[in-house]
Amino acid sequence: MANFQIEWSIEGDKSLSRVLIGLGASLSDYRQPFNSSAEYLKRTFSRDVFSTQGRAIGERWKRLSPATVAEKARLGYFSGPLIRTGRMQNSFQSIVQSDQAVVYNTAPWFKYHQSKQGRSGRLPRRPMMGLEPNQKATIVRYFQEYIQQSMRK
User: Fold this and answer.
1) How far is CA 116 from CA 3, 15, 111, in A?
2) What angle (nearest 5°) sits at the alpha carbon of residue 138, between those of residues 11 and 37?
3) pLDDT value for 18
4) pLDDT surpasses 90 at 137
5) How far apart are CA 151 and CA 125, in angstroms?
């Protein structure tokens, strides 16, 4: 049996790389586990990351400045960092193919919060995409279950 390797990268860093040894020699279409993984990550990034202000991916966000809190209150927005209209939170998308999945955010300002590049001005880094060990384990489990089910057929 052949080995199968899963690799997810977030902004150039390998966030997950796992070789599933001895599984998947006869499989070539991994759309199902890639789709499950992409949907799981979109839910995690849009729901858990925002509700925990980054802690769900081990990247606790910087608090809002008192001036920003006052401005949001004045405008009638009750929300934490990165939430005013919900557009960025609801802009996670995915493209799934037989051999890969890409999860991304379509909000134009997403890249400024996610990027590890140097900061100028007042915009702090508040990443929304990342993987913690429990999320990595969930993704690996999707692939293991798919391969095991396929081998039973």
Assistant:
1) 33, 15, 9
2) 60
3) 66
4) yes
5) 44
Which tokens sit at 152?
């039973």
Handedness of CA 42, 45, 50, 51 (dihedral sign): positive
Q: Report the length, in residues, of the chain.
A: 153
Q: Which helix (H) or strand (E) holds 3?
A: none
Where are the chain's structural domains? 28-152
Rounded to 5 degrees, φ, ψ at 133 are -55, -40
Closest CA to 31 of 100, 103, 92, 94: 100
Could you tell me if 131 and 18 are in contact, meaning their C-beta atoms sit under 8 angstroms apart?
no
Q: Which residue has the higher pLDDT, 9 or 108?
A: 108
Helices (H), the chain: 31-43, 49-51, 66-74, 110-114, 133-152
